[in-house]
């Protein structure tokens, strides 16, 4: 009889624990996440979570987790694992979302490593879209990473359109308008 009571008590406890855990993890809202789990998380609505820092009037720094407008593709209710954070060279204290890290060869090397690229689809999706926003195809960047990393970085750095500086000459104290080289 005692073993029957113990088994029943255990089953009730296990059921209650699993329901509590499911209710806790079932819906992820970025604003409810701590700053230790915010970065690289995806809400139930499929929006990426970003860590933001603000300085209070007292000078104290406060971190909050916010929902960004960036949507994750085919990912919802996801908090990135510590294994992926480590394998991909990420930092949980990252503020916001930026493609700047793609310019760092050590980060790109970790991102393109099999431990990250083949095992962490949420991270790869994020950086695939960030690279695309810079006009770079992430699989191609990873391909050249091993062969010619400098070339891949140069491609990323030069992805933006940069207008040349004004060409002018001084003639009698006036400045002439810039002329396109193709119109000569």
Number of strands: 4
Ends distance: 101 Å
Q: State the helicity in percent bands.
A: 40-55%
Please work out how many helical segments DSSP would assign: 7
Order of helices and strands: HEEHHHHHHEE
Report the biggest beta sheet as strand number plus sense, adding barrel if it closes. 2 strands, antiparallel
- List low-pLDDT spans: 7-23, 159-184
Work out the count of structural domains.
1
Mean pLDDT: 76
Main sheet strand line-up: 1-2
The structure class reads: alpha+beta
Anisotropy-based shape:
globular
Signal peptide: 1-26
Pfam families: PAR1
Keywords: Signal
Protein name: PAR1 protein
What key phrases describe this protein's structure?
alpha+beta; 184 residues; disordered C terminus; 4 strands; two-stranded antiparallel sheet; globular; PAR1; two-stranded antiparallel ribbon
Fold and architecture overview:
With 184 residues, the protein is of the alpha+beta class. The chain has one domain. It contains seven helices and four strands; from the N terminus they run H-E-E-H-H-H-H-H-H-E-E. The strands form two sheets. The protein has a two-stranded antiparallel sheet with strand order 1-2. A hairpin with a 5-residue loop joins strand 1 and strand 2 (61-71). Helix 6 (138-147) runs antiparallel to helix 7. It is globular.
Write the layout of secondary structure elements.
Layout: H1 2-26, E1 47-55, E2 61-71, H2 82-87, H3 105-112, H4 114-117, H5 121-133, H6 138-147, H7 149-157, E3 170-171, E4 174-175
Antiparallel strand pairs: 1-2, 3-4
